[in-house]
Amino acid sequence: MPFGFYIEKLPDILKDMPLEKIEEEGYKYLKIRDDAKVKINLPDEVRMRIDKILDEVRDLSDSELNARVLRAEYYSKL
Hints:
By secondary structure, the chain is of the alpha+beta class. It is built from 3 helices and 2 strands; from the N terminus they run αββαα. It has helices spanning about 10-15, 45-55, 60-70, and strands at about 20-25, 25-30. It has a two-stranded antiparallel ribbon with strand order 1-2. The chain starts with 9 loop residues before the first helix and ends in a 7-residue tail after the last helix.
């Protein structure tokens, strides 16, 4: 059974951001444009949490990642 999720307000949030759409090896994703002047200042605890999550999900397949998102407690709040 395929898994997936959709955030209704996300397109409105993304439309004003300096992003480019990338299609590569059958995948589509968004990337901050190379010429964007975006500075991201995150508190150390936030940066460490993001790094931990990325380490946990880095090698998951699409279906494993989608299943994990759907099980997350915050998903239902989106």
